[in-house]
Amino acid sequence: xxxxxxxxxxxxxxxxxxxxxxxxxxxxxxxxxxxxxxxxxxxxxxxxxxxxxxxxxxxxxxxxxxxxxxxxxxxxxxxxxxxxxxxxxxxxxxxxxxxxxxxxxxxxxxxxxxxxxxxxxxxxxxxxxxxxxxxxxxxxxxxxxxxxxxxxxxxxxxxxxxxxxxxxxxxxxxxxxxxxxxxxxxxxxxxxxxxxxxxxxxxxxxxxxxxxxxxxxxxxxxxxxxxxxxxxxxxxxxxxxxxxxxxxxxxxxxxxxxxxxxxxxxxxxxxxxxxxxxxxxxxxxxxxxxxxxxxxxxxxxxxxxxxxxxxxxxxxxxxxxxxxxxxxxxxxxxxxxxxxxxxxxxxxxxxxxxxxxxxxxxxxxxxxxxxxxxxxxxxxxxxxxxxxxxxxxxxxxxxxxxxxxxxxxxxxxxxxxxxxxxxxxxxxxxxxxxxxxxxxxxxxxxxxxxxxxxxxxxxxx
Length: 461
Prior knowledge:
The chain is of the alpha/beta class. The protein has helices at 2-21, 34-43, 87-100, 120-123, 128-138, 184-192, 274-287, 289-292, and strands spanning 26-28, 67-77, 106-110, 115-118, 124-125, 144-149, 151-152, 155-158, 169-172, 297-300, 321-324, 356-357, 366-367, 402-413, 416-424, 428-430, 455-456.
C-alpha cells in the first residue's frame, strides 16, 4: 500500500513538472526598445496630445467607416510535414480576431489558403534571428502576416509596430484559436496597429489620477493606470482586480480588467477603449495605408462593344467585371457612347444647366424638378417650425463662418454613416471638418486636398 502511494505521488509530481515546463515565460513578447521610445517621443501623433487625426478630409470620419483587411496565415510544421495547427483552429483564430474587433471599424479576412512552412528550424522559434528569418523569407506583401509555431520564444505572441524593421506577428500554437484563450490574437494585432500595453512603463509609469496619461503608460487617457494585471485578476467570468499595488503618489490602482491590451485573465480581455480604437484607425489610415489599403484592380473581359441595329430591334451581350481582391465591394457604372440613329439626342449647349446627373462611381444620382420624372417643386417655409441656427458661427459673424450641428438621424454618404454635419455660410454642407471649411468660397474640381471634401453643394460646378 505504501509503495502504491509513493508511485502515485511520483506520478503527480511528474505531471506537475510537465505542466510547468509548458508555461510561458511571459504573456506577450512585444516590447519597446530604447530606440523605439526615442522615436515615439519625437514622432508619435498621440504623444502629449499632439493631434487628433480622425477627421482628415481625405478619409472622412473614420469612426463611421469599416475597413476589411487581408490576412495571410502561415502554419509552421516539421520538415516532415507533421505538427502545426489544424483547419478548425486556423479558422477560430480569425473568428476570435473579428469577434473582438467588432465595433472598431476594422475586420479581417484570410486573403488566400493557409501557407504551410515545413521546417524543423522554424517549428520551434527560439530567438529573434529565427523569427526575423522566417518572416523575411515568407511575408506576403499588402497583407497582415500571422505565423503560428509550436514555440514562440517563450511567449504567447510577438507582434510588430509600424516602426519595427521586420513586419509580421508570431504566435505559439497553444495561444492561437483556442477556447481557453480567445484574446491573444486580437491583443497582438492591437500592437500591430500601434497600441501599447496598458501597464507600459518604458515611457514612464502612469499615475492613477491621470495627470501624466498623455506622456506615459500607453499614451491614452481613457485607459486607467495599470500596475500589470498578471496574476492579480480573479478567474473568468468574475474578472475582479485583487491587487494592492499603489502608484508613485501612493494611490491605489483601479485598472480595467477587460481591456485587450492588459495582462488580465485571457477570457476577461474583451474590449478596446474609444481612444485605443481611434489610435488603431489612425495607424491604419496614416501609417499602414500603403501596405493594407491598396486600391482593388478592376478587370473587364472586353474593352468595347459595337452593335448595329435596325429600328425596333434589340440585342444583348455579357460583360464580365471583376476586382482583386474579390472581397472588395465593387461599384461600377456603364455608359453608352457613340450611339447614333433615330433615337439619338442632341447635346445641350455649354451654358445650359443639367437637370439631372449620375450615377457616379458610388451609384449616386440626382434630378431636379424640371427634369422628366423629377420631384414636384414645393416651397416649405420652416421659419415657424424649424430650429434656428442662430449666430453661433465660429468667427462670430456670418462671413466665412461655419458651425457643427446634429442631424438627428444616421445619414449614409459615400461609405460612411454620419449623425453630425458642418454648415458653411458659403453655401455647402460637409461631414469632414478641417481648416479649409472657413475659406472655401470658390468651387475647384473635387475631390481635392485644397478644399473641402465629403461635401453636399447644390451649385458647385
